[in-house]
Write a structure and sequence with these properties.
Blueprint: E1 16-17, E2 20-21, E3 23-27, H1 32-47, E4 51-56, E5 71-74, H2 89-118, E6 123-129, H3 133-141, E7 146-150, H4 154-168, H5 186-189, H6 215-229, E8 233-235, H7 239-252, E9 257-259, H8 280-286, E10 293-297, H9 306-319, E11 323-326, H10 338-341, H11 346-350, E12 354-357, H12 362-367, E13 371-376, H13 380-388, E14 393-395, H14 402-412, E15 416-418, H15 425-436, H16 439-459, H17 464-478
Parallel strand pairs: 3-4, 3-6, 4-5, 6-7, 7-8, 8-9, 10-11, 10-13, 11-12, 13-14, 14-15
Antiparallel strand pairs: 1-2
Helix pairs in contact: 2-3, 3-6, 4-6, 4-7, 9-15, 15-16
The structure holds uridine-5'-diphosphate-xylopyranose (UDX).
Length: about 475
């Protein structure tokens, strides 16, 4: 899809206030899946005339040299509260909670200094990731309005809102989940959650089950509070994808909701990748026939067991399908080096038919005509990036919102299907063939093509996302 004329370039003076450019302050959560949409938003607002100041932690810090048009303000945190990114999701949650708290005092000082320098009136607002509640609280105390960016789907945020109800009605905790997940009955996992159609219990954020530390509950409750104390919720989704869910959120929230996605189609890449993207894979794809290759990537955080890596590798090899596979350093639990991770004989078995890279320019890969399917963990960015290029998906969700996203892909948009159960090479082979060369896969690709068109309409002139952007800018300049 050719990016639409940036709505944006149209109105250079949108953010001018009293003859001065208005400043917007941003604070992303320092993980790849959260940094990318925040930087897209930065690009969009900058094009509308805002000066952009990005507060950030040293952990996963952006490289200011790659964004000379923005100002960067590092926020100090006490030693020991950041990095490296942990492998287990429970530890990532603990790290997010700790990071927010650790930033509080350093951010207060830095924000006060910035406000003094810019003058309070020249600052429109601060936009922070919804997972950074302490940042919202500090900012409110300094009388600066805030907006919350949630980088997941509208359905996912509805699930955040519903979390207390899920406990009250007995959907959660899933009994036995924390002690012995394998013992949880299929019927229990597949139970529909009628209040959150089409989710089943297994699609909820239940990976910690009845964990007594309650850190997941705390994380979600704090994100809900951040949105409620803010002056509005910005979502990286669009009307054609989640109309019903957006209507539900607008009913349940008193703050306005701005569905301005897909953000990556509104703003140039801006290079917010934390890992170096290996662009040689684009040349490799150039030599492939249309829709013939499978792209495989499990995002920036998901980790697999050594056993699953072996089944994945031999499933890919056995499928006979050309592939581009992202094997991220540290993606396999207990290993830090790509070379050690692939099973012996895999390279020889797939020579000339596949390419393995440590990190890819994913959006360009998905846009490439040679890519016929995406085996994904269904992080929200990956899901929307795939949808926007009309690429059908093989879903292998790991944690958090990924199960719910996979449910929408398979059941609502019908542009992919889940590789169910434990990964096993025979099932993987069959699933890959079904997606890339099967009749079923072709139908999913056709439906994905329709969604791509719908996305293009949303981002085109007068489309829902363009209108939402205009409303957002008007809102920001009225706060
Ligand atoms: C995390 C959670 O996993 C996800 O469920 C949540 O919605 C956001 O935070 P992550 O694992 O990073 O996200 O996945 P995803 O949301 O898909 O974001 C990954 C980003 O990295 C995408 O924008 C993708 O284009 C980019 N990427 C991925 C690359 O640039 N190169 C790659 O090789 C792989």
């Amino acid at each position: 899809m050719t990016p639409p004329p940036a709505p944006a370039m149209a109105a250079e003076s949108d953010a001018v206030h009293g003859g001065r450019r208005r400043h917007v302050l941003l604070f992303p959560l320092p993980y790849q899946g959260h940094i990318n949409p925040m930087f897209r938003l930065a690009g969009l607002l900058h094009a509308r005339g805002f000066s952009v100041t990005v507060f950030h932690t040293h952990f996963n810090a952006p490289d200011p040299a790659r964004h000379p048009q923005y100002r960067f303000v590092p926020v100090p945190v006490p030693d020991g509260t950041s990095g490296p990114a942990p492998a287990a999701i429970e530890d990532v949650i603990a790290q997010i909670l700790a990071l927010g708290a650790a930033c509080e005092s350093g951010f207060r000082d830095r924000l006060a200094a910035v406000l003094e320098e810019y003058s309070r009136d020249a600052v429109a607002c601060l936009i922070a990731d919804a997972h950074l509640l302490p940042i919202f609280e500090v900012t409110a105390k300094l009388a600066v309005p805030t907006l919350a960016l949630r980088t997941g789907s509208a359905a996912c945020f509805a699930c955040f809102l519903a979390y207390p109800m899920l406990f009250e009605k007995g959907y959660l905790p899933v009994k036995g989940m924390s002690s012995d997940p394998a013992s949880v009955r299929q019927s229990q996992r597949d139970m529909p959650v009628s209040e959150l159609t089409p989710y089943r219990v297994r699609d909820l954020m239940v990976f910690l089950g009845d964990d007594d530390r309650g850190s997941l509950r705390e994380l979600l409750a704090r994100a809900v509070t951040a949105v409620k104390v803010s002056s509005g919720l910005i979502l990286n989704t669009f009307d054609a994808l989640e109309r019903r869910e957006l209507e539900g959120l607008r009913r349940d929230l008193t703050v306005p909701v701005f569905d301005i996605g897909p953000l990556h189609k509104f703003s140039p890449a801006g290079d917010s990748s934390l890992l170096r993207q290996d662009r040689s894979c684009l040349d490799w794809l150039d030599a492939r026939p249309p829709a013939s290759a499978l792209y495989v990537s499990f995002g920036s955080l998901a980790c697999m067991s050594p056993r699953d890596l072996v089944e994945t590798a031999w499933g890919i090899a056995g499928s006979g399908v050309p592939f581009l596979w992202v094997v991220r350093p540290g993606m396999v639990r207990g290993s830090a080096h790509q070379e050690q991770e692939l099973p012996e004989g895999f390279e020889a078995a797939t020579r000339g038919r596949g390419m393995v890279v440590a990190w890819a320019p994913q959006e360009e890969v998905l846009r490439h005509r040679a890519v016929g399917g995406f085996w994904t963990h269904n992080g929200w960015n990956s899901t929307t990036e795939s949808v926007c290029e009309g690429v059908p998906m093989l879903c292998c969700p790991y944690f958090g919102d990924q199960m719910g996203n996979a449910r929408y892909v398979e059941h609502v948009w019908r542009v992919g299907f889940e590789v169910g159960g434990e990964l096993e090479r025979g099932a993987v082979e069959a699933a890959i063939r079904r997606l890339i060369t099967g009749k079923d896969g072709a139908e999913m690709r056709a439906r994905a093509g329709e969604l791509k068109k719908a996305a293009e309409e949303c981002i085109g002139k007068g489309g829902s996302s363009c209108l939402a952007i205009d409303k957002l800018i008007a809102h920001m300049t009225s706060l």
